[in-house]
Write a structure and sequence with these properties.
single chain, mainly alpha, 92% helix
Length: 38
């Protein structure tokens, strides 16, 4: 939580990049999970 608050205070592209990485990871996980089950 502290890391998120710190990033929010700074804002800017770094926060965007981190958010993008998290989203990409979630999407990749959602896509890969069904493929692994098959």
């Amino acid at each position: 939580p502290s890391r998120i608050q710190r990033t929010r205070k700074h804002g800017g592209p770094q926060f965007r990049q981190e958010a993008g990485d998290v989203l990409a990871t979630l999407v990749a996980t959602q896509i890969m999970t069904p493929l692994k089950k098959r």
